[in-house]
Specification:
327 residues; alpha/beta; 2 domains
Length: 327
Amino acid sequence: MPTHAITRRVLSAAIALLASSAALAADYPEKTITLVVPFSAGGPTDVVARILGQAMAKSLKQSIIVENALGAGGTLAAGRIARATPDGYTLLLHHNGMATSTTLYRKLAFNPMTDFEYIGQVADVPMVLMARKDLAANTLPELIAMIKSKKDAMTLGHAGLGAVSHQCGMLFLSAIGVPLTTVPYKGTAPALSDMLGGQIDLLCDQTTQTTSYIRTNRVKVYGATTKTRIPSLPALPTLAEQGMAGFEMYVWHGMYAPKGTPPAVVARIGTALREALNDPNVKARFAELGAEPVSDAKATPEGLRTHLKAEIDKWGPIYKKNGAFAD
């Protein structure tokens, strides 16, 4: 067959594909969209998802339901989305765990860099280091001294191997050079509940879940994990300004669709995402929780892809150095 004939066929196929994608986008969405969250209801990521889902539903003129699908540090939900029908009706909201799973899990049923369509980054959430209200240490130096003298008697809770609370705790213990007994939970909500009840001593958690407890003095808080102070908690110093130079840890969120979702549908969801992040009500609700919507440039497929790759490169060596692996 002549080369020009093959070229015409390829071009015709490409045009047909674009036309089909455009047609899907024109009709999308025609039914309820499911936004899957790999963590427990009421937890930090769930809170972000529900605020975001309500705003995106207005833009898309269609209902968005949030579904909590727990298990294996978020990898079960991510694997499910990777295998879902690529029509834009099943989406995933995941946090840092999408990046750390590549090192943490020896057998992973998906590849974060190849098995998804990226919608965009969503929001950055600060974390805080805190303790049960009756812990004797009142300042960060006092806490570090207590940990060093009573390390065998103190406990640090987290939401499971690979969770952001686990990452944060690991960075803190690595920075002070002291190991502690860690207690894994199925989410930070039960970990926080146990800390409030005095069953564990320490927890590193997101402001979306802890701000109200900090403001009402129900926990003892030692510092923020960000470079600068959190606007919603201006009196709280950062760990870095208290002598832990370079300490930085925050939770970032990304939205994903199954690989093969039509480009026009991905673009339509992306537009709704950016509109939601610029909604004054969303900004206000996020601000109350200490969360910050990302810029329009980050709330794009390329913005998420670039950040995900950078996070994989950052956390891989840290996990390997500490020998942190799941089965």
